Amino acid sequence: xxxxxxxxxxxxxxxxxxxxxxxxxxxxxxxxxxxxxxxxxxxxxxxxxxxxxxxxxxxxxxxxxxxxxxxxxxxxxxxxxxxxxxxxxxxxxxxxxxxxxxxxxxxxxxxxxxxxxxxxxxxxxxxxxxxxxxxxxxxxxxxxxxxxxxxxxxxxxxxxxxxxxxxxxxxxxxxxxxxxxxxxxxxxxxxxxxxxxxxxxxxxxxxxxxxxxxxxxxxxxxxxxxxxxxxxxxxxxxxxxxxxxxxxxxxxxxxxxxxxxxxxxxxxxxxxxxxxxxxxxxxxxxxxxxxxxxx
Length: 295
Description:
Elements: H1 3-16, H2 19-26, H3 30-44, E1 49-51, E2 56-58, H4 60-85, E3 92-98, H5 100-117, E4 121-127, H6 134-137, E5 141-146, E6 154-162, E7 164-168, H7 170-176, E8 190-193, E9 201-204, E10 208-211, E11 216-218, H8 221-229, E12 234-238, H9 239-248, E13 252-254, E14 263-270, H10 277-289
Parallel strand pairs: 3-4, 3-5, 8-11, 8-12
Antiparallel strand pairs: 1-2, 5-14, 6-14, 7-12, 7-13, 9-10
């Protein structure tokens, strides 16, 4: 018997919880499904399923094998999809979700270039900083910035490093002085980004966290950036947001001897989703676009 087909039958039986449901899904006879599972158990030399007249359950070996089978079958299906689509021009609507501030600065021109290259792909871009359920909301691809992906049900492909800096306007520093160490921030007015929890604790290095305070907090980095420009306080934000201000001198980076932990821009998509060509080409396009040093 064919090993891959035996894996597919075993996966269907384990996933559905019964031979009857699996045979309906696979359009296979009960007898043939049983033969596949029996052959697979003999091939492996271990029992994968415990069967009784009332119920069916995975053995410990069956649970371990199922986890690996799911990955193998997904890779096989994806390889077949790639091979069959290599000569097909991508088409259809692609729903992309990304952080607000990042998308405003960097995705408009990139999507324009992507659309010129792939005119038959329609892109629907939603910019939001809230946590989303990709499957429930029908999102094909999401961009997120974090230190590590939190959702193990999603594939996370790193696209670019995100550097965080602490900075303030020259006017603020002239009036209030420049802190020499992270602990010195406690004596300054800091602008707090509430989507970074806890907002009043800024980390420098693996074991150096300081508590800061300030009279202005917001869930949007652009608002805090505007406040920093006019000298309200010290800001802690990524260089893709404050890079132009640093280059122009409107803001000055401080505490450069105390680098902050770096983050990563990830492209997220669901496990076991065999990527349509439209999603695959956008992933490849974004990887190429962010291959150089980020802004």
